[in-house]
Amino acid sequence: MKSIKTKWDLQLLYKSDSDPKIEKDLRLIEQLCESFAKKHKGKQFTKTPQTLLKILDESEKLNELMDSCAPSHYFHFKTDLDSSDDKSFAISTKYGQRLTEASNKIKFLGLEIAKIPLNKQKTFLNYPALKPYKYLLSQIFINAKYNLSEGEEQLEDLLSQPGYGMWIDAQEKLLNQQVIKHKGKDIPIAKAMASLSDMSKKDRREIHKKITAILKSISHVAEGELNAIYNFKKIMDKRRGYKKPYSATILGYENDEEAIEKFVSLVSKHFHIAHRFYRLHAKLLGEKKIFLADRGAKIGEIKIKFDFPRSVNMLQSVLAGVDKEYLNIFNKFLENGQIDVYPKKGKTGGAYCSGYGKLPTFVLLNHVDTVRSLETLAHEMGHAIHTELSKNQPSRYRDYSIATAEVASTFFEQLISEEVEKNISKRELIILLHNRILGDISTIFRQIACFNFELELHENIRKDGQLSKEIIAKLMSKHLKSYLGSAVEVTDEDGYFYVYWSHIRRFFYVYTYAYGQIISRALFEKWKEDPSYANKIKQFLSAGGSMKPEDIFKSIGIDTSNDSFFEAGLKGVEKDIVKLEKLAKGFKISK
Ligand SMILES: [Zn+2]
């Protein structure tokens, strides 16, 4: 392979901020949407299957072009590399609005199709030439009863920025300005949070207290924000006729509401597995009782460093072992500058993979040479491979449901973990296994506790109108306790972490983490049993959004409708805990 780039090359999108192609792309989309609307709006294109087919083919061509339109993404990526770049931030918002207005013009198409009466829908669904659109049509028909008038739909799209997005931005800005004063130093709050698990017990608990105090002191803003956005959702849900606070999310991810309700209650009934882990976690830390500050505390160091070149080598060999195409995708990303590797002042924290339509996919990392950094690389490349393979789908099916996203990413994470295991000592293996279970507990049980917390928050705000910051904190403490169990002491003050928890601002999407994690474990086990299962995994990674998630998994031999499937997944986590309990007998934390 050619040499590796460790910085994003945004020229893959545009040559520079003043590239004339930016305005040209925007105009093209605006004009095409405009003329599409002029040509078809008010015409009777849903009269027969043939007329519908014609307009769908035409709109598909338009969507393909929109899938290559990058202006707002380009500027958004720039602000993620440099948060002080206010200019790019403003431009990205402005262009985002222009594109929303353009796509609003063609919204009538879906709304008109949704009006096809129930008794005629079958004729359309079974018309042979419409087969490529069958799933799309069936989704439009299912969602039809929640549609509003065209004007209202457009208004919601535009109002969701000031009624939702801008509230969250304001809250985030306030949060990002907070610093923790410790030992004469000012530590930005995000950094303090991220490094809690690495600190000594004394520092960790002290800083945790300081963070809580700061979160409490600015909670009046989060109180206003949450009450506003939860009420905005309440108003829209009522208008659209969604029965429950989570209905829109689950339907949007193309899952079955009843199945997810059953799943959430099943995980909640198994919180005792999480309790068992935290008892062991406390023991491994050498404590009888621990505090929330110690929830993610390390029990030891894995000394080997995974610098980026080494991480690349390891991931390359793992990917080649499953499918050569995965390796080729990874190499192409490295050569083209689609991965931004190292932390930098002003760069956004954490890691993500962003792929939209046919645009090049970009991966953002903050690689600091730890095992976790290596696992994150594998995780994000899992998303990237899923995204790249889904690009072979037509525009209408290119986006995959969030319910399948984490299955892909955690599958690749498991692959790399297995590779790491081969290279470490027994003591390090204990630490690694501990960290992995800690991650699983967070992904499965913590996220479902979060779901339960959100639900109660929505229900109470719907009932009482508004909730005070103190009551929200109390609710949060209650749900933290529910999954942490009696080994972890949670105070009312700890409840103020809702100020920080970004998940509760993306209503109910957390269940997809738990759901995806369990399915991905099953995928991994099947592949371990029979390497030829790799073909099925590729089939799943290439399916995009062409079927319901349940049906995609069914097609590769995983039946999520079977009650015992998820239960077996949860028992699998418990088995890992038992394994760690045995392995760690006599383990002493180095203080
Ligand atoms: Zn992910």
UniProtKB/TrEMBL annotation:
Keywords: Hydrolase, Metal-binding, Metalloprotease, Protease, Zinc. Its cofactor is Zn(2+). InterPro entries: OligopepF_N_dom (IPR013647), OligoPept_F_C (IPR042088), Pept_M3A_M3B (IPR045090), Pept_M3A_M3B_dom (IPR001567). It comes from the Bacteria. It comes from Candidatus Zambryskibacteria bacterium RIFCSPLOWO2_02_FULL_39_14. GO terms for molecular function: metal ion binding; metalloendopeptidase activity. Residues 112-167 form the Oligopeptidase F N-terminal domain. Binds 1 zinc ion. One of its GO terms (biological process) is peptide metabolic process. This is Oligoendopeptidase F. Belongs to the peptidase M3 family.
